[in-house]
Amino acid sequence: MVSIYWLIAFVVLVGIEAATMALTTIWFAGGAFVAFLLSLFGVSVEVQLAVFLVASFLLLFLTRPFASKFINTNTVKTNAESLVGREARVTARISNELGEGAAIVDGQEWTARTGEDGVVIDEGSMVRICSIQGVKLIVTALK
C-alpha cells in the first residue's frame, strides 16, 4: 500500500522538474523511486524513509555540480557579466600606476584598468574586456 504513495511522489516530483527544468526536485524523485523499489520488496516504512533521504541527498550532492554544467546552458548573461569578452573604446588613457582610465561600451562609460601593471593604453584605442572587478572593467589592448 505504501508503494503507491512513493510512486505518486515520484510522478509529482518528475512533473515539477519537467515543468521548471530548475534542477530542484529531480534528486528527490530519484530518492522516491528507490524507496518505491524497496516498498515492493516489503522493506519497513522506516527504512524506506531513511533510504529516501539518504538517496535524495546523495544524488543532490554527487550529481548536481555535474548536471548544472549541462542543464540550462542557454541562459543569457545579464548586466555586467554580459560585457566580458566584448570590445570597448578607451575614452581616457588607462594607467594602473596613475589610477586613471575609462572606456565606453554600449553607450556607458566605465572606469577601466589593465590586467597588468606597467601597461598604458591610450585614449581612442580598442580594448577587450577580460573581467569586471567591482565597478571597473579589466581590459587588454587589442592588437
Strand and helix map with partners:
Blueprint: H1 2-20, H2 26-40, H3 45-70, E1 87-95, E2 100-105, E3 108-114, E4 120-121, E5 126-133, E6 136-141
Parallel strand pairs: 3-6
Antiparallel strand pairs: 1-2, 1-4, 1-5, 2-3, 5-6
Helix pairs in contact: 1-2, 2-3
Which residue ranges are poorly predicted, with pLDDT under 50 across at least 5 consecutive positions?
Answer: none
Helix share, percent: 40-55%
Instruction: State the end-to-end CA separation.
Output: 72 Å
Number of helices: 3
What count of structural domains? Answer: 2
User: Class by helix and strand content?
Assistant: alpha+beta
Q: What order do the strands of the largest sheet run in, or round the barrel if closed?
A: 1-2-3-6-5
SSE order, as H and E?
HHHEEEEEE
Number of strands: 6
Shape: rod-shaped
> What share of the residues does DSSP label as strand, in percent?
25-35%
State mean pLDDT (0 to 100 scale).
89
Largest sheet: 5 strands, mixed, barrel
Gyration radius, rounded? 26 Å
